[in-house]
């Protein structure tokens, strides 16, 4: 693959605060890695806090870090981020692409940016390459029934990449990432929305959309998620659920995976008591290895999983836990 020569702009996320320090998120490390695979040019990160983790950004290949002045505005507001990224991209003569994380905010940011830049955009992308000088993206559509490959032909492509679709790889010899402070002109519409309050969700471990391992419980748990939680804990993963589990009130709706829930792309997905209905499996199309434990040998999950165990999860999971411990 002949790479681009032009730079790529990557909108990165951090967690933390000014007092305790900001830490680059794993999906941002994956974005920087993806950008390096697409261009021999320079990688410009756009950081949305006043004190970004420059050494870590450099470790994953950022040559420059734009620090737009948000003037106290929240980076949770997509319009604010889009205005900030537009100000940064205006600092560059040319850019081959602009990448964001495909989460709720990232997808909204991508659509704002594409409109502002009069460019083509694609979200929920899981594959990227350069073909004949064009950025070619891939993703599954229509509830996972089709895998599509397409080129973004208008303007600077704005791409939202699914978390975990790329593995983060640090550069061999990181250079220093240079900080560039940027002034931003905010549109009136962007400042019309402001964050009034936010509460951190309780619970430890990685978030569902960012975890590299997800253990998902379905109706087969019969409402008891203790084995699902234990397996997720043992593997350092996150817990997910089918819609049935959420509808029954066994788990919070926020961890529902599928067409009307979250789309995830972990390296490893383990379904426990999940039948594999298409409304669910469309949310795991980007998963690396899919493992299923289900007592129905005719369940559709066995048609798409890499490893399947036909049996009662209440017998199989404790054995797996014993081995892991
Ligand atoms: C418009 C629309 C949108 C939808 N969106 C979503 C969505 O976003 N996400 C989603 O998940 N669903 C969604 N659904 C629902 C979806 O179609 C399925 O009904 C749902 O995914 C099934 O969940 P399940 O696999 O937990 O339950 P089931 O289909 O009932 O499967 C449970 C499986 O567990 C097995 N089992 C039972 N006991 C055990 C045991 N002890 N050990 C091992 N296996 C056991 C059973 O044999 C069965 O195969 C949507 C449906 C519609 C119509």
TrEMBL record:
Record key words, sorted: FAD, Flavoprotein
Gene3D superfamilies found in the cross-reference section: HUPs, TPP-binding domain
Binding site for FAD: 219, 242-243, 256-260, 273-280
InterPro entries: DHS-like_NAD/FAD-binding_dom (IPR029035), ETF_a/b_N (IPR014730), ETF_a/FixB (IPR001308), ETF_asu_C (IPR014731), Rossmann-like_a/b/a_fold (IPR014729)
One of the GO biological process terms: fatty acid beta-oxidation using acyl-CoA dehydrogenase
GO molecular function: electron transfer activity; flavin adenine dinucleotide binding
Cofactor: how bound: Binds 1 FAD per dimer.
Keyword Flavoprotein assigned: yes
Domain Electron transfer flavoprotein alpha/beta-subunit N-terminal: residue ranges: 12-195
Named cofactor requirement(s): FAD
PANTHER family: ELECTRON TRANSFER FLAVOPROTEIN ALPHA, ELECTRON TRANSFER FLAVOPROTEIN SUBUNIT ALPHA, MITOCHONDRIAL
Function: The electron transfer flavoprotein serves as a specific electron acceptor for other dehydrogenases. It transfers the electrons to the main respiratory chain via ETF-ubiquinone oxidoreductase (ETF dehydrogenase).
Subunit structure: Heterodimer of an alpha and a beta subunit.
Name this polypeptide is given: Electron transfer flavoprotein subunit alpha/FixB family protein
Organism: Winkia neuii
């Amino acid at each position: 693959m002949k790479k681009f020569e032009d730079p790529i702009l990557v909108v990165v996320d951090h967690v933390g605060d000014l007092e305790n320090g900001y830490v680059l998120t794993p999906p941002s490390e994956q974005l920087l890695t993806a950008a390096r695979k697409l261009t021999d040019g320079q990688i410009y990160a756009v950081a949305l806090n006043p004190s970004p983790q420059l050494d870590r950004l450099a470790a994953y290949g950022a040559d420059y870090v734009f620090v737009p002045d948000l003037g106290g505005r929240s980076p949770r507001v997509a319009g604010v981020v889009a205005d900030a990224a537009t100000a940064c991209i205006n600092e560059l003569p040319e850019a081959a692409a602009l990448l964001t994380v495909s989460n709720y905010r990232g997808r909204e940011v991508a659509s704002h940016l594409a409109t502002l830049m009069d460019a083509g955009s694609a979200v929920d992308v899981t594959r990227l390459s350069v073909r004949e000088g064009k950025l070619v993206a891939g993703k599954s559509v229509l509830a996972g029934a089709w895998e599509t490959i397409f080129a973004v032909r208008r303007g600077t492509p704005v791409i939202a990449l699914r978390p975990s679709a790329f593995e983060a790889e640090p550069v061999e010899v990181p250079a220093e990432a240079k900080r560039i402070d940027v002034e931003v002109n905010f549109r009136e519409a962007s400042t019309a929305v402001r964050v009034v309050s936010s509460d951190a969700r309780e619970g430890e471990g990685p978030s569902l959309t960012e975890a590299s391992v997800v253990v998902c419980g379905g109706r087969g748990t019969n409402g008891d998620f203790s084995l699902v939680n234990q397996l997720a804990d043992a593997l350092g993963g996150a817990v997910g659920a089918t819609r049935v589990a959420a509808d029954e009130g066994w788990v919070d709706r926020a961890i529902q995976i599928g067409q009307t829930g979250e789309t995830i792309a972990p390296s490893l997905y383990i379904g426990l008591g999940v039948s594999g209905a298409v409304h669910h499996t469309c949310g795991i199309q980007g998963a690396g290895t899919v493992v299923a434990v289900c007592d129905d040998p005719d369940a559709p999950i066995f048609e798409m999983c890499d490893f399947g165990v036909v049996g009662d999860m209440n017998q199989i999971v404790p054995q797996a836990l014993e081995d892991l411990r």
